[in-house]
Design a protein that fits this description.
- There is one protein chain.
- This protein has three domains: 216 residues, 3-Layer(aba) Sandwich (Rossmann fold), CATH 3.40.50.300; 83 residues, Translation factors (Elongation Factor Tu (Ef-tu), domain 3, Beta Barrel), CATH 2.40.30; 107 residues, Elongation Factor Tu (Ef-tu), domain 3 (Beta Barrel).
- Helix content is 18%, strand content 33%.
- The chain starts with 5 loop residues before the first helix and ends with a strand.
Length: 432
């Protein structure tokens, strides 16, 4: 079968999947919150009462200007300290695209929050201070977005006003970040000079950087092609909910609800139910508004089958000729998010798509030193560490390598005693 026609797929109902999920990250004081505030203000997403509130707050704080960062620093502790602690999500719309934007923390101790914000992003904006260039947090955040497989990375060199908008200052940083991105294998990298405080090259191109022939930041994000980033070839549909109305009118109706995790789904497609191995065909793909011609990754739909199969939550529908791995053992990259260290032999829950099993940590193969980006051996992982571990599973998980499918290759680890999420993981390889 040839590659799907993206123009066809992204029309009608399927166009709903064309949301751009964006994460902004960088070191403390690089201006992430100011940049997001500038995007919201210049795209006219700020209500009058919000604007009046931040004007008053800025005056009370003695900022000397309207502090746009206050639009996103929502927690009281954030406003008092002038830092971002939690991930602040904002949605906005331009005439050309819908955006969901996450403002990720810059402090090292909030690395786990940054991983959360970046885990579902289509694109990452990594901010740098034009006066400082590449620093440890730049390396850390670039490593994270590379590890998470974020398809598009924009290095926004901020505070160009503080270096006189000089091209030379920007070009030096541009070379450094491109070398870093190449070393880490980051995908589709661009570098853009901006001054978020004044709006230079954020929404519109700046006359003060006439030497810059590239797009403004928003212009680039509005035209970014994300459809091809989705796995449109390997059909994956984790069952989240079984729909059985049990009414006289619908007494024989059965459908399986969930979010498409891979491939293009149409009525008539052959399908295998896993882990049972039962085979049938798709009778219909439906939304709340009725039948759909097709469904693509990111869409939440209900699938009806030609045969009456008994499939519980946690099962998966897939292409019979291109099946996921029924894994009993995983090698995975893990970001540890708990105060209690991770050690070999620890027992945890593993939640992947809609399925949960128990696991034992067989070994910690390596941990990354964020200063050098080199891997080293370790007997434990501490809070915010990122490393490679091996897990033995109590039951099969239906997975793909994360590099092939972010939806079926991602999982979280859950503390058995606390039920807390203690880690985010990405499958590197799996065995049955």
């Amino acid at each position: 079968m040839g590659s799907p026609d993206l123009t066809e797929l992204l029309t009608g109902e399927a166009a709903e999947a064309e949301l751009l999920r964006l994460v902004a990250c960088g070191s403390v004081d690089d201006g992430k919150s100011t940049l997001i505030g500038r995007l919201l203000y210049d795209t006219k997403q700020v209500f009058v009462d919000q604007w009046e509130h931040i004007e008053a707050t800025s005056e009370r704080r003695g900022d000397g200007y309207v502090n746009l960062a206050l639009l996103t620093d929502g927690l009281r502790a954030e406003r008092e300290q002038g830092i971002t602690i939690d991930v602040a999500y904002r949605s906005f719309v331009t005439p050309r695209r819908r955006f969901q934007l996450a403002d990720a923390p810059g402090h090292v101790q909030y690395t786990r929050n940054m991983v959360t914000g970046a885990s579902t992003a289509d694109a990452a904006v990594v901010l740098l201070d034009a006066r400082k260039g590449v620093i440890e947090q730049t390396r850390r955040h670039t490593y994270i977005v590379s590890t998470l497989g974020t398809p598009h990375v924009v290095f926004a060199v901020n505070k160009m006003d503080l270096v006189g908008y000089e091209e030379g200052a920007f070009r030096g940083i541009q070379r450094a970040v491109e070398q870093l991105a190449t070393r880490l294998g980051a995908q589709d990298v661009v570098t853009i000079p901006i001054a978020a405080l004044h709006g230079d090259n954020v929404v519109e191109r700046s006359d003060r950087m006439a030497w810059w022939q590239g797009p403004a930041l928003l212009e680039y994000l509005e035209t970014l092609e994300v459809a091809a980033d989705r796995n449109l070839h390997s059909r994956r549909f984790p069952v989240q909910w079984v729909i059985r109305p049990m009414t006289e009118e619908h007494h024989d109706y059965r459908a399986y609800a969930g979010q498409v995790a891979g491939g293009v789904w149409r009525a008539g497609d052959p399908v295998i139910a896993l882990p049972s191995g039962l085979r049938t065909r798709v009778a219909a793909v439906e939304s709340a508004d009725g039948p759909l011609e097709l469904a693509v990754p990111g869409m939440s739909v209900a699938i009806r089958l030609e045969d009456d199969l008994d499939l519980p939550r946690g099962d998966m529908l897939a292409d019979p000729d291109d099946q996921p791995i029924a894994a009993r053992s995983l090698e995975a990259t893990v970001c540890w998010m708990s105060e209690q260290p991770l050690t070999p032999g620890m027992r945890l829950g593993v939640k992947q798509t809609t399925r949960t099993v128990r696991a034992v940590i067989e070994s910690i193969d390596s941990v990354v030193d964020m200063n050098t980006l080199e891997e080293h051996s370790a007997d434990q992982m501490r809070l915010n560490d990122i490393g490679t571990v091996r897990l033995r599973l109590s039951g099969p998980l239906l997975v793909d390598p994360y590099a092939e499918n972010r939806a079926t290759g991602a999982f979280i680890l859950i503390g058995e005693a606390t039920n807390d999420t203690v880690a985010a993981g990405m499958v590197r390889s799996a065995t049955t």
